[in-house]
């Protein structure tokens, strides 16, 4: 290697180190709302540096190919960002997780094809990097393919296009176990036993095929209420796949970046499981969707409703109000009307706060992002642990589509599928307004006894339209 080439290689490694530090800084700054935008800018700069360093390492022809791909990907990314409404952001996150897994698998497969072309009578593990390379290729293909198919299925579930818990035999826990063992067996066989380029490549293609089925089988039995946890876990998978591909390519930056994504995804998954008082194993293997289906509501009795004209005087007479947003607010795009209502109440001297459940909506932080979009001050947002003891001293609670996270069955019914799940104790307030289109069950698919409570008034209709009428009534009060 010439001194110039050596200097260039060292320089690129330094650029990669700088990129990794920017990624870490970005993750750190994402922990606070006020610095989240800055975090994205630093992380984007890190990615730009990483791409620039990679272009320096490859030849001129390859660099133009990479630039063409980057330009095309940028156009697609911008269009997706502009056209995807906030309500569809959870499924878009799932889709992007899948693309990350697919990219990792494709890169590993491409490197494997080049590596195994001239290997008659040799195993993959007998190459220059030995067992490390063989294991990295197998795991990259396995995790990447599982992430891809599982994320696409999560996308369809979150968008409401698929509600089944089985796809023929796919989804059976027994079949999943067989597929998982078969995939691990193929990783060992294709990497350490199979001889010859064609045989090695065929074995790894078989890993991809079985892993795609395994990804479908792991996600399809999981109910919609648990999809936020699944999305977070798949995000971790995509990071682990990228990290494994980093070992395939001997690229330190990819190893670091993938590890950061994998670790942060696992941490977030653990936090969300804790918020639901369930273990990850319970989320993945307990067939929650089937349990919920067996306990669908059989109807409600004694339900009382309130029109905007009837709700306005109650709110006007209150001294404290807590707003509990959920996916219904996201669907109706009612966050700006919520902010307008809160401002109007505050002008009347009424204290307004927001109760945010960790799994409200369909992805972590969903409600926080929507309310931030409407310029709701972040210091008015309170987590479940911070505000749950205050409902008993609150005059009015307004629940906007947050069905499952305000369900008293979690506390009062030990046989409920959500028994033990921490929920917002909204029923302890003097009056509860539930803004909802109908009495239909939430994403968990179970009955909510809150609707039958003596102090609950159902406010039927589109959340945005109802709040608009409520604001008009309050202005005239």
SSE layout and pairings?
Layout: H1 3-29, H2 36-57, H3 60-83, H4 89-115, H5 131-158, H6 173-192, H7 197-219, H8 227-249, H9 252-275, H10 280-285, H11 288-293, H12 308-316, E1 320-325, H13 327-332, H14 335-347, E2 351-356, H15 366-373, E3 381-383, H16 384-387, E4 396-400, H17 409-412, E5 431-436, E6 456-460, H18 463-476
Parallel strand pairs: 1-2, 1-4, 2-3, 4-5, 5-6
Helix pairs in contact: 1-2, 1-9, 4-5, 4-7, 4-8, 5-6, 5-7, 5-8, 6-7, 8-9, 12-18, 14-18
Distance between the termini: 82 Å
Strand order of the largest sheet: 3-2-1-4-5-6
How would you characterize the largest beta sheet? Answer: 6 strands, parallel
Question: What class do helices, strands and sheet pairing give?
Answer: alpha/beta
The number of E-state strands comes to: 6
Amount of beta strand: 5-15%
Spans of 5+ residues with little confidence (pLDDT < 50)? 1-7
Q: How many helical elements?
A: 18
Outline type: elongated
Helix content range: 55-70%
**Averaged pLDDT:** 86
Total separate domains: 2
Rg (CA only) = 26 Å
Describe what you observe in this structure.
The chain is α/β, with parallel strands linked by helices. It folds into two domains: 84-290, no CATH class; 308-476, TPP-binding domain (Rossmann fold), CATH 3.40.50.1220. It is 60% helix and 6% strand. Helix 17 (409-412) links the parallel strand 4 and strand 5. Helix 14 packs parallel to helix 18 (463-476). The longest helix is centred in the first third of the chain and has 28 residues, at 131-158.
Offer a quick outline of the entry.
With about 475 residues, the chain is α/β, with parallel strands linked by helices.
């Amino acid at each position: 290697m010439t001194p110039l080439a050596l200097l260039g290689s060292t320089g690129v490694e330094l650029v990669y180190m700088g990129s990794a530090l920017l990624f870490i800084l970005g993750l750190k700054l994402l922990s606070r709302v006020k610095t989240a935008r800055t975090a994205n800018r630093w992380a984007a700069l890190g990615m730009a540096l990483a791409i620039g360093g990679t272009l320096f390492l490859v030849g001129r022809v390859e660099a133009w190919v990479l630039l063409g791909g980057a330009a095309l990907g940028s156009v697609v990314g911008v269009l997706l960002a502009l056209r995807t409404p906030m309500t569809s952001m959870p499924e878009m996150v799932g889709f992007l997780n899948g693309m990350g897994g697919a990219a990792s698998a494709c890169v590993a497969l491409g490197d494997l094809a080049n590596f195994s072309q001239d290997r008659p009578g040799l195993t993959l593990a007998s190459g220059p990097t030995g067992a490390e390379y063989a294991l990295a290729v197998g795991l990259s293909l396995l995790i990447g393919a599982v992430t891809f198919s599982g994320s696409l299925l999560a996308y369809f579930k979150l968008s409401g296009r698929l509600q089944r818990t089985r796809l023929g035999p796919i989804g059976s826990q027994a079949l999943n176990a067989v597929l998982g063992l078969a995939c691990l067996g193929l990783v060992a066989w294709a990497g350490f036993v199979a001889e010859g380029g064609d045989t090695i490549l065929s074995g790894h293609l078989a890993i991809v095929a079985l892993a795609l089925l395994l990804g479908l089988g792991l996600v399809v039995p999981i109910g919609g209420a648990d999809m936020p946890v699944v999305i977070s876990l798949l995000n971790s998978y995509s990071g682990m796949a990228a990290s494994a591909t980093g070992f395939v390519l001997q690229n330190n930056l990819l190893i670091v970046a993938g590890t950061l994504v994998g670790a942060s995804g696992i941490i977030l998954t653990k936090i969300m499981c804790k918020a639901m008082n369930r273990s990850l194993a319970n989320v993945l293997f307990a067939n929650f969707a089937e349990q919920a289906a067996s306990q669908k509501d059989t109807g409600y009795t004694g339900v009382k409703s309130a029109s905007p004209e009837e709700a306005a005087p109650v709110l006007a007479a209150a001294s404290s109000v807590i707003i509990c947003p959920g996916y219904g607010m996201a669907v109706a795009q009612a966050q700006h009307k919520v902010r307008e209502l809160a401002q109007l109440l505050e002008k009347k001297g009424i204290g307004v706060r927001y109760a945010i459940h960790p799994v409200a909506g369909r992805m972590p932080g969903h409600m926080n992002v929507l309310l931030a979009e409407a310029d709701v001050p972040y210091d008015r947002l309170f987590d479940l642990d911070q505000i749950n003891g205050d409902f008993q001293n609150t005059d009015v609670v307004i629940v906007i589509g947050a069905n499952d996270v305000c369900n008293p069955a979690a506390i009062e019914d030990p046989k409920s599928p959500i028994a033990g799940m921490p929920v917002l104790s909204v029923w302890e307030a003097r009056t509860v307004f539930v803004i909802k289109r109908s009495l239909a069950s939430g994403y968990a698919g179970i009955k909510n006894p809150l609707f039958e409570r003596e102090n609950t008034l159902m406010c039927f209709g589109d959340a945005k339209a109802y709040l608009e009428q409520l604001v008009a009534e309050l202005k005239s009060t």
